[in-house]
Amino acid sequence: MYDFETEVVVSELPAPPWVIDSWSNDGRYLALIMGDGPIPPEISIWDAQLEQGVAQLGGIGVIWSDQGSRFLYQVHDAETRTDELRMYDLATGTGHPVTRGAPGGLDFDWAPGARYVVIDDGTREALRFRVHDLVEGRDAVILLGVLYVDWLDDDTLGVVGDACSQHAYYSVDVDGSNLRKLVQFESLAVPHLSPQRDRIGWSLREEDGRFVTTVMDLATGETREYETGDAVLPPYRGGEYWSPDGRYLALIKPGGRDGICFSQEPQELEVEVR
Predict the structure, then answer these.
(1) Which of 179, 171, 229, 234 is nearest to 201 (CA)?
(2) Is there a domain that residue 50 lies in?
(3) Domain, as residue range, for 217
C-alpha cells in the first residue's frame, strides 16, 4: 500500500492470490478478496491508518456504508445453494447475519443513513425486493413486481415497476406508505439515478430511429430532453454513467461503437447537463 503524500510504502499486502474489492467511503479501509480456484474466498480488510490487516472473514461482495467502518458481505452455503447476507462493524469487531437470500444469489445496497438495506432476493419466476431494518432486525417492507430499486434519501425508495404491467418510476417510503408515480415511460426504459439522488436520466428511441435522452428533476418534475442521435443510456443497470459531481452523462452506442459524454450539444462530445 503506497502513500502518495509521503511517497513511501506504508504497508505490505498479503501474498497473492487476491483481488482488490473496494475501499471504504472514508478512504481508511481496503477490502481484498483472497483465494483462488475451488478454495472458498475470504475477505481481508486492511487499515491504511494502522498499516495492517484488521479483519479476516469468509465471504465475498463487500458493500460499505456511508459511515465508513460498517460493511455488508455475502456468504454462500454450498449445501443449500443459498446466500446469507451479513454485516460487520470494524469499530466494534462484531458482526451478525442479516438475512438469507434465494437460490442463485442476492444483490443488496445500503440506504444513505445506513439504517436500512435493500435486498434483491427474487428469482426468474418472481421479482422481489426486501427492505431490511438493521435497527429493528426485521423486514420493513417487501416489494413485489419491481425491476429496480434506488435510494432517494434515508427513508425513501425510487422504484421501477414491472415492464409487463406498470412500467413507471415511483417513490415510496420504507414502510410502504406514500406511494407516488413520478413518471410514466412511453416504452421500455431504465432510469439512471444521479449520485446526488436528485435527478434521473433515461433514453428512448424515436420513430426515426434516433434516441432522445431525458433528464428529470425529482423534486420539481421538470424534464429536459436531449437529442443524442445513436447514443443511449443502456436499458440495464450496471456501470457509472453519471459523473460523480452529476455534471456529465456518459452514453454508449449500441453495437459496441464508441460512446459520448453529453448534455445539450452532443456533437461537442462533452457538455454540461446543468
Answers:
(1) 234
(2) no
(3) 188-274
